[in-house]
Design a protein that fits this description.
Elements (H helix, E strand, L loop, with lengths): L1 E7 L6 H8 L5 E6 L6 H7 L3 E4 L4 H11 L13 E4 L5 E2 L3 H11 L4 E8 L4 H13 L8 E4 H6 L10 H9 L4 E10 L2 H6 L1 H16 L4 H8 L2
Parallel strand pairs: 1-2, 1-4, 2-3, 6-8
Antiparallel strand pairs: 4-7, 5-8
Helix pairs in contact: 9-10
Length: 225
């Protein structure tokens, strides 16, 4: 079984497109909402997906969504239970499901992630994409496809508002990470608003502080400014 978990917070403008891509393709969709005040929940209800409500914070929401996934299965969670975590503003490349099926069949003990791509044209979006590729370590906007027993073995997502994706990737380790040959196209809105150089350098500074031991809760306040 393949369950897709999507954390949302006022994602009305992005969510319909992703749900349309997933509809009829995956076994289950879980929208884990953190208190949206726009039409996000109406979109989720209309799409007839499972909805997990609770406090906001992406780590909390991802972990909550994983717990709600596959609740209707009376059998124990087993090796056929897969989780795919995606951000609400993600748009997947055309061959994404073929890549997911191939990974599930041939790489059961590894976690897969998509290629990062912006929904914008020009030099700076391609430049950022190049550096993401060079980094070789996936972040949350590249998605994460992982079998449940592997996910639980590393402790799942921590209850953090920021860098929960970095935490779980570090626990998985590079040997258990595998790139999928399909794109995860994400919104470049924040980069467009703040400037690619400013936003990029700001993100680099924050993640450096995280690696040096800073509290993710403190860093989240700076990230959202």
């Amino acid at each position: 079984m393949l369950s897709v978990i999507i954390p949302t917070l006022n994602a009305q403008s992005h969510l319909p497109q992703l749900l349309t891509q997933l509809d009829g393709v995956v076994d289950e969709i879980v929208v884990s909402d953190g208190g949206s005040i726009d039409g996000t929940l109406e979109v989720a209800v209309a799409a007839k997906v499972r909805i997990a409500l609770g406090c906001k914070g992406r780590g909390w929401q991802l972990a909550r969504g994983a717990k709600w996934a596959n609740l209707d299965n009376n059998l124990d969670k087993n090796q056929d239970d897969w989780l795919l975590f995606l951000h609400a503003d993600t748009r997947l490349g055309e061959n994404w499901m073929d890549e997911v099926r191939h990974h599930i069949k041939h790489f059961p003990t590894q976690a897969g992630y998509f290629r990062f791509k912006f929904d914008a044209h020009g030099f700076w979006p391609r430049w950022i994409e190049f550096w993401v590729w060079l980094r070789c370590t996936p972040y949350g906007d590249q998605g994460l496809l992982v079998r449940r027993d592997v996910y639980e073995a590393v402790g799942g997502y921590p209850d953090w508002p920021l860098y929960e994706d970095v935490n779980i990737v570090r626990k998985l380790g590079r040997r258990r990470l595998r790139p999928l040959l399909a794109d995860a196209v994400t919104s470049a809105a924040r980069y467009e608003e703040q400037g690619y150089v400013r936003r990029g350098l700001g993100n680099l500074l924050l993640v450096t502080r995280y690696f040096l031991g800073a509290d993710p809760n403190d860093l989240n306040e700076r990230y959202n400014k």
